[in-house]
Design a protein that fits this description.
Blueprint: E1 3-7, H1 12-23, E2 27-32, H2 41-46, E3 53-56, H3 62-72, E4 76-79, H4 86-91, H5 93-114, E5 119-125, H6 148-167, E6 171-176, E7 179-180, H7 189-201, E8 208-210, E9 216-217, E10 220-221, H8 222-232, E11 240-243, E12 249-250, H9 251-261, E13 271-273, H10 291-297, H11 305-321
Parallel strand pairs: 1-2, 1-4, 2-3, 4-5, 5-6, 6-11, 7-10, 8-13
Antiparallel strand pairs: 9-12
Helix pairs in contact: 1-8, 3-5, 5-6, 7-9, 7-11, 9-11
Length: 322
Amino acid sequence: MKKALIFGICGQDAAYMSQLLLDKGYEVHGVGRSVTHERMWRLDDLGITDKINISSGDITDASYLVQLFSDLQPDECYNFAAISFIGQSWKTAETTLNVNTTGVLHILEAIKTVSKHTRMYQAGSSEMFGRPDTKIQDESTLCNPCNPYGVSKLAAYNLLNIYRDAYGIFAANAYCYNHESPLRGMEYVTRKITDGVARISLGKQKELRLGNIEASRDWGHAKDYVQAMWAMLQQDKPDDYVLATGETHSIKDLLTIAFAHAGVDNWEQYVVEDERFYRPLEPHTLCGNSAKAKEKLQWEPATSFETLVQEMVDADMKRLKG
């Protein structure tokens, strides 16, 4: 039985990864900085909370990580622990760099020191590209982050590559484009929209305030993406991969699908553009080319954008109806 260690166990990706690994017969250990019953709702929704060995821990604590890896000796490690809400990264830039970059350094050091056989997955981001000079990005695209979150992920990526080359650690990085699901946090625009649409359709809310509704993203389903993340650690050699759908959709597209699915006409009358939600620096439209993942991992996203949005609306409608 393989043993996996997952950091950021209370998050969306960690929940789907835990489910995937359990289905494959892994022994799963999960660590979160603040593990409470309320924060484990995703694992509860999937019905897997009691199947995971869950503990509290902080990846910014180097000595804790050395002891953890020494005791556990995991075959695989998946790092989803991060301050991942971009809006928050502007407000807490120093903390973002500490968690997202220094935390990764501590994990790499712990693996190097006491558990060198452990294979590590690092959750990178399309925000590392930020404002690229190409319309479509792949693994060779020059990174040009435009927010503290993107900077922190790029720094972590560079550290990972240095440790991979210098110490022979099996460490793989994914440039993850936006991936959503009914397990997405309410602070993210996709979930804010599907929750708001559900509330409006049920008469619980009168308007939905958003930032730039012209913004476009490459959106996929988180459940599809964890399949590629797992496959990255099953390869003969560690590498870096773009995980994306290759399609972009605007916030307007998302609103159109969500309101239509909820049976609400003329969505424009319910949506208010609010400058308070604008980013200090808006990245260019990001769209990823995942040809390398298709070729080497035999991976392609399986869920369409329309199906994703409809699934999220359905989940929020069900939750709000009780």
